[in-house]
């Protein structure tokens, strides 16, 4: 072989954690689409990335719990390994400018703690249900919350799976849309991160299954607009009403200041 | 006349306004596969203001987004047009059947991905046809746009439908559906068309749509098929093609862009969010090819060779990488290793990007021009994928017929060097169904592949080397010496390939090291119909489309029986049929449907080259031997533009080779 041996990998000297959002029409990007877009943005922004070793070196990036294709998110997280120490805010601005509008870097911290993935315990989801009044949404929601178990089916990579959604549902409430002229219920749910994951569309499937007459009650088109608003550690306040999803970057920020 | 054809579906209700249809589309996107392909938002996409423009283009690549978005032709014209003051250009692609059904159900029209405007609201709809198999997708788009399929039924509220690309060199099969066809390089042609449309609009649209088409025809910038009558002989052959109005020239000539360094497009290549077939940036290093392979339409219609200088290439690579963030650069052309300064250029680029995780590729290379140093240079900074060589013809005799002047010795030597240099996998591309070909010619492929493996094992000292034989069916194309040839019927093609497959499989010593890939011959027969068809083939296309033909370039969507049945129905009253268009050899005197379209090639030279092919005689390349009078340069007033260039490459200082040129660097010569 005349080929050179694999180059030495570039070890990270700094790890940073980024919070990013997926908004508007770019919510239709799949996680793979996002990964390609993000890695190209890093190159355009000239971010000094650390690379893995081997014949096909890859930039050091760890992605966590990507929101499903088609759902928007204000709280996606990833971690990157850098070959040079960078200022977090400068990094945030550079990557954000290199990304297309709709994919936005909203927060960056230097990693000072371990077990970041374990801190992503739950997500708060906002589900807009156009054409459905809050009253129409309330009844099935009450039935769902009253049940001990509600099973739904979903086609996964490993075939059709049946699983319970109720145990993962930590909190749910219905409110009217901000502009009260349009008939649109806003459902807010907090879902625990479990395996297999319970996603907002599973909750909607469960609501449809417990609703007495889904079609008559408006549980059909147009498709709901789903946004992940928060993702992080569960901060429990004693009662179900007080469940709060915290900031998973807070621990790094605190460690940075001490 | 086509007006007797059945009418298409009713116009979608949203057509007619230029407002974004995105809210309506957005509700459908959760219901379709890969919705990201319909939302736009590419890095480097242009957001031009609708109201600031007085000439508005929609450009379509009539295939799926994943194929169309990387297309260089569309990306170049998109930028060239958007740079012009007062001109706006947006892009549109074929929608998959799942979205098409939903769009029909909900009345959502064909839209652009840039601003999601209805295609029917634009002044011009330009379609880039790399292949004839995109014709049915054009009909879907027109229909969804609410534009009448038949050009003569359109009024001045509809876009002018302009075809371009290689397939437009014989636009006769789609003559009833398009308003105009641009032959050759599009850069200057779209600017001239924009000017004509602007003047017509500013003058108050004199004589309506007819006035505009007449102005286009008179300018010679494009061929306007509706201004020509085609007369037929009783046996079905064409008697003559006659301009119907004095504005229409007897012959329409192709456009040739000279001095590629003056046209460094795309300057800001699009980076799609969706995954596409080419996940890399491309730089066109030259246009045209004079190798003279007789089957190759691209080589015939893009003459003469016009190289981009090495400094120009280096500047485009540096600028493009900075603006896209791609990890791979493809140096594109019809035969990239033929660039007169390819070795210097690739070494320079490999030095520049050493250590930057950036790889180079030469997608089209010839066996004889390729050397392994070049291959090693290319793989220096990136993954080592397989090498592909295209001897095209399996036997020495066949290669003489097609003028692919590669000897078996050349091929074996090149491939042996590749295996010796550590490459493990080599792909060999051949064609089946070439003129005068026999079973024996094709069976030679099995022998050649076995020899490649034998020598490869010897040179590398390993038994795990592989070679893949990939076969495509030959389709005779207009404006080539083989335009008169009979196409091999698909039954014989399939039988010949079955024999070849058996010959490879039964080779005990080498068979297991040889992969074999081929497609059945049926799609080639329909491509042949569409390639060399005349205006009557338009009825076949319309019939096949009405019966559901879509995405005919995709094997999972292509249906031969549907096309054969459509040909039977549409040509029932004619003395001709599918075989007449495909497996019939044409004579010298026959008027070919594209004879009035001027690619610059002298018809008599083409005929002589066809006779030379039958006599197994070769023709040299005019880049390094005297002109052989193909006619192009004289006819078009052009000349070969090749190196060496005296513009130096930007300086590269020793010890700093790990640094790619700075972002924003534009590569002025040092």
The spatial strand order of the largest sheet of chain B comes to 2-1-3-4-5
CATH topology of the largest domain in chain A: Alpha-Beta Plaits
For the record, the CATH architecture of the largest domain in chain A stands as 2-Layer Sandwich
What structural category do the secondary elements of chain B indicate?
A: alpha/beta
Q: With helices defined by DSSP (H or I, 4 residues minimum), what is the helix count of chain B?
A: 21
List keywords for this structure.
heterodimer, A: 258 residues, alpha+beta, Alpha-Beta Plaits, 5 helices, 32% strand, disordered N terminus, B: 670 residues, alpha/beta, Transcription Regulator spoIIAA, five-stranded parallel beta sheet, 18 strands, 33% helix, 13% strand, globular, disordered C terminus
Please give a structural write-up:
In chain A, helix 3 packs across helix 4. Chain A is 22% helix and 32% strand. Chain A has two domains: 14-111, Pseudouridine synthase I, catalytic domain, N-terminal subdomain (Alpha-Beta Plaits, 2-Layer Sandwich); 119-245, 2-Layer Sandwich (Alpha-Beta Plaits), CATH 3.30.70. Chain A is built from five helices and twelve strands. With 258 residues, chain A is of the alpha+beta class. In chain A, the strands form three sheets. In chain A, strands 1, 2, 3, 4, 5, 8, 9 and 10 form an eight-stranded mixed β-sheet that branches. In chain A, strands 6-7 form a two-stranded antiparallel ribbon. With 670 residues, chain B is an alpha/beta fold. Among the domains of chain B are: 2-230; 280-384 and 600-670, Transcription Regulator spoIIAA (2-Layer Sandwich), CATH 3.30.750.210. Chain B contains 21 helices and 18 strands. In chain B, strand 3, helix 5 (135-145) and strand 4 (160-164) form a beta-alpha-beta unit. In chain B, helix 5 (135-145) crosses helix 17 (537-546), helix 6 (187-202) packs antiparallel against helix 7 (208-219) and helix 17 (537-546) packs across helix 18 (560-570). Chain B starts with 21 loop residues before the first helix and ends in a 34-residue tail after the last helix. Residues 1-15 and 653-670 of chain B have low confidence and may be disordered. The interface between A and B is large, with 34 and 37 residues.
